[in-house]
Structures are given as C-alpha cells and as structure tokens.
Design brief:
The complex is a heterodimer of chains A (246) and B (226). Chain A has a single domain, classed as Rossmann fold (3-Layer(aba) Sandwich). Chain A is built from nine helices and ten strands. Chain A has helices at residues 44-51, 74-81, 98-108, 114-127, 143-155, 173-188, 200-206, 224-229, 234-244, and strands spanning 6-15, 18-28, 33-37, 59-64, 67-68, 83-86, 161-165, 192-196, 209-214, 217-222. Helices cover 79% and strands 0% of the residues of chain B. Chain B contains nine helices and no strands. The mean pLDDT of chain B is 93. Chain B is globular, with a radius of gyration of 21 Å. The chains are: A alpha/beta (246), B mainly alpha (226). Chain A binds chain B through residues 52, 54, 72-74, 77-85, 87, 89, 91-95, 104-105, 108-109, 137, 139-140, 150, 153-154, 157, and chain B through 42, 122, 124-125, 127-136, 138, 142-143, 146-147, 150, 224-226. The structure holds adenosine-5'-triphosphate and magnesium ion (MG). Magnesium ion binds next to helix 1 of chain A. Magnesium ion is lined by residues 44-45, 165-166 of chain A. Chain B: Residues 14-215 form the ABC transmembrane type-1 domain. Chain B: This is Putative Glutamate transport system permease protein gluC.
C-alpha cells in the first residue's frame, strides 16, 4: 500500500488556555472517505482547519502527499490549492457570478486560460446541477444550490483531498439530499474526503471509516457499520444515544 | 458679480482649489489604501506602524500639518518639490507642499474608511479565497478589497467631501485658492461681502453635493448582496 495521503501525527493546538486538539494522530489513504463526528466543541472544525492551515498548531506534524505543511507564504498557497475545503456557510465570493466563483482559482492559481477555465467550470456546474445559474450571483441562489457551487469551486482546483465542515447543517431539510447526493457521487468517483457531519445516511452509504472525537481527542475509529451498531467507548455510546433519538 | 470677476482672478482661485483637491484625493486614496493593507495584513510591525500613523495624523490639526510641511520641511530643511531657480518656485513649492500636507492628513481618514469597508466583508470570504490557493495578496485583490471598496464608498464620500472643503487650509501657507480669494475680496470690497460669501459657498456646494449624491447612488447600486 502506498503511503497515506494525509497524515496528522501528534498534533496539538491551544486556543489560549483551551487545549482544543490533544495529540491527534490520523492517516487518510488515497480514495478513502473519513467521517468525523463528535459532540459540539470537540474540535472537529479546528482539526479540519489545521489540515489546510487556516489554523496554526503548536506541535506535531501534518503532511499532505508526503509534504509537510509549509509556513505562511506562496508554498502554503500552492498546497492549499491541492486541498479543497467546503464550509458550513458556503462562503461563495459574494461579488462574483457563479461562473466567476468557479473559474477564479483555476485562472489565478493554476494559470489556466479563461476560455478553458470557463469550459471546465461549466462542466462542473453541470455535474452539480446548477449550470443554468452560471450568470447569477450567490445571493440569488438557494442554500443547497450555493453549497453545490462551493463544491464545484473546490473541484475546479482538482484537489487531492477535500475537507467538508458540516456542509449540510446550514441547509433547510429539503435541500440536504441534493448536496449529499453530489458528495456521494464524489466518493464513488474515488475522491479522498474528510467530512465532518452528523448525517448517518451519508456515513453509511459513502464512508469507509468513522472517526469519533471528544474533548479534542480521537476517542474511537471504526467502519460505519461497526461504529453505529457496536461503539466501544462510553463517550461514543452516549453521543450516539443522543443523536439517534432525534 | 461682474465687478468681482473683473477685479479678482476668481476663476484661477477656483481652479487652484480643484487642482489641490484632485491631486490630494489621488494621493490620499493611494496612501490610505496602503495604510489599510498594512493595518489588516498579517505582519505585526506593519499593523503597529499603520495604527501609529493614523492615530498621530488624525489627531493633529490640518493647519499644523500644512504649516509644518512648508516651514519645517521646505524652509528649514530646504526640501524643494519644485526647482529652486524657476521663476515660479515660491508658488509651486507652496502648492505642492499643500498637496503633500492634504494627502498625508486625509490618507489617515481614507485608511479608516477602507477599514470600515473591510469590516463589512465576512471572514469566511478571505478563508474561502485562501483555501482555493490564492496568496495573501491575491485574496486581497480578488476577493476582499473589491467588496471592501464597495462597503467603503459611503464613508469614503464623507472623506472626499471633507478633503475638498479642507483645501481652504492651504490659504494658511499662501496658496492662491478660493479661501485666499475670499480674504482678498473681503478686504478690498467689503461692500460686496454678501456676494463673496454666497459665491464661495455656492462653489463648494456645487462641487461637493453632486459628488455626495453620485457616491451614495453608486454605493447603493454596487452594494454586495449577501
Ligand atoms: N478562534 C477561536 N478562538 C477561541 N476558541 C475557539 C476558536 N475556534 C474554536 N474555539 C473553541 O475551540 C473548541 C473546539 O471548537 P470547534 O469549532 O473545533 O468544535 P466543533 O467540534 O467543530 O464543534 P461544533 O460541532 O459546534 O461545530 C470550542 O470550545 C470552541 O469554543
Ligand atoms: Mg464545527
């Protein structure tokens, strides 16, 4: 087996006195889909954000495709281009059209010609089902459509791995599935994904592994089937009891 | 009215005011933008330097800054902004130092107007920009500043209007602009004082009001929908 694509080893991070990430060790293989779940405040978002260094960390190391995360600067920007990120609140560029949102990275970072970038962007927008909205602005789209555009924007960079931080939790219930369907498609196509979500359906359908976090630690890891039916730790059992009764 | 225009060079005074306002505005916009970038950027020492500039300059009277430019920098330190041997040296240096003073002073306000614009841009926008691999400079240029400028148009309008009116301070160092015309007019034709006041006020209103209306309109039209 080739070396894992994403490796966190011994990662520690504090927010002031709060020890948000405690000695995190996690490897994600190529093509693997890892779900991160855990109670609110357990550090799931922070872990995601340290992987593309939107947050700094104090000790330990993170490598992507064998390369350690560089410090701030051009190299870090290059590395971030290889790591897609989809946010809970979409964060589409509010002053740009849907099409320009998707082509910005390919043109400015990958130095593609505008025409080629637009052609590829239209194909991606087609794939996520919002091609007919290409000339609109983000505020004119529904939440579900915006999140699908955000996924297309990440995909346009041809990332090696994609991070999703609760991509559906800001959405109205009827829009959740349209986004999950796109993500399931990605997983089937072999994209390496780290997904913070409490969507059990998605976990069962698309995930290879579930990582359970509590108090800044990874408490337990298992296949979805095993984790949901036979969690080992008490923290995980408690947590599952709470979310499954909803 | 005709008498006034015959006796004083009103047009050249108005022209001088426009000249001062135009070049100081361009200077203040450029320096103010640089200051704003320094203040929001990731480099601690730039943050501090930018903040120090703004606090120092913003809290110093403009008259003091402009007189300092001419007396201390020009007369004392002999810094010439126009050739010493040219026949119009005195006038040119006066005008250019006035522009420097106006620029330096209003740059601080432009910086703060821009920062208030930057504060209208949610942090998620910059995070998304960085996460697709844009560098710090690219995310500023492509994502943050275009939105910040739109959010800054309204506060910027106030700064520009203040700048236009503040050009009258250049009269303190002898620049022949509108306030200087007013002083001469009142001195030599006190019988026309009302007319002079109305003329000068009318000139400034004519200059600033359309600017205010246009910028308000622009800021509404360009407002970023979220
Ligand atoms: N920028 C910050 N400054 C200070 N504390 C922070 C910051 N961001 C997060 N925290 C704290 O760190 C802890 C972990 O936060 P994080 O957002 O990673 O949790 P999470 O598992 O994603 O929770 P949720 O399910 O609510 O999204 C929380 O206690 C949070 O209050
Ligand atoms: Mg979170």
């Amino acid at each position: 087996m080739a070396e894992p694509l994403v490796v966190l080893s011994g990662v520690n991070k504090h927010f002031g006195d709060l020890h948000v990430l405690r000695d995190i060790n996690l490897s994600v293989d190529r093509g693997e889909v890892v779900i991160v779940i855990g109670p609110s405040g357990s550090g799931k978002s922070t872990m995601c954000r340290t992987i593309n260094r939107l947050e700094t960390f104090e000790s330990g190391s993170i490598t992507i495709d064998g390369k350690p995360l560089p410090q701030e600067g051009k190299e870090l920007a290059q590395l971030r281009a290889d790591v897609g990120m989809v946010f809970q609140s979409f964060n589409l560029f509010a002053h740009k059209t849907i099409l320009d949102n998707v082509t910005l990275g390919p043109i400015k970072v990958r130095k593609k010609a505008k025409a080629a970038a637009e052609k590829e962007a239209m194909a991606l927008l087609e794939r996520v089902g919002v091609a007919h909205q290409a000339q609109k602005y983000p505020a004119q789209l529904s939440g579900g459509q915006q999140q699908r555009v955000a996924i297309a924007r990440s995909l346009a960079m041809e990332p090696k791995v994609m991070l999703f931080d609760e991509p559906t939790s800001a959405l109205d219930p009827e829009m959740i599935n349209e986004v999950l369907d796109v993500m399931i498609g990605l997983a089937k196509d072999g994209m390496t994904m780290i997904v913070v979500t409490h969507e059990m359906g998605f976990a069962r359908k698309a995930a290879n592994r579930v990582v359970f976090m509590a108090d800044g630690q990874i408490v337990e890891q298992a296949t979805p089937e095993e984790f949901f039916t036979n969690a080992q730790s008490n923290r995980a059992k408690d947590f599952l009891a709470k979310i499954l009764t909803h | 009215m005709g008498e006034l225009f015959a006796q004083f060079d009103v047009w050249s005074a108005f022209g001088q005011t426009l000249y001062l306002a135009f070049f100081s505005a361009i200077g203040a916009l450029i320096i103010g933008t640089i200051l704003a970038i320094m203040r929001v950027g990731p480099v601690g020492i730039f943050n501090k330097a930018g903040a120090a500039y703004v606090n120092l300059v913003r809290n110093t009277p403009l008259t003091l800054i402009i007189t300092f430019c001419l007396i201390a920098l020009h007369y004392q330190l002999k810094i010439y902004l126009a050739p010493e041997d040219s026949p119009t040296s005195i006038v040119d240096n006066g005008v250019r130092w006035a522009i420097v003073g106006l620029t330096v002073y209003h740059a601080a306000f432009v910086c703060e107007a821009l920062r208030s614009g930057i504060n209208t841009v949610p942090t998620g926008q910059a995070e998304a920009a960085r996460s697709i691999g844009l560098t710090f400079t690219q995310s500023l240029r492509e994502v943050v500043l275009p939105q910040a400028f739109r959010g800054a148009i309204a506060p910027m309008a106030s700064v520009l209007i203040a700048l236009i009116k503040n050009t009258t301070v250049a009269y303190a160092i002898g620049v022949a602009e509108t306030a200087a015309f007013m002083r001469d007019g009142l001195e030599f034709r006190p019988d026309l004082s009302f007319l002079i006041f109305v003329l000068v006020a009318g000139f400034f209103v004519l200059l600033t009001m359309p600017l205010g209306i246009a910028l308000t309109h622009l800021s509404q039209r360009l407002a970023v929908k979220r």
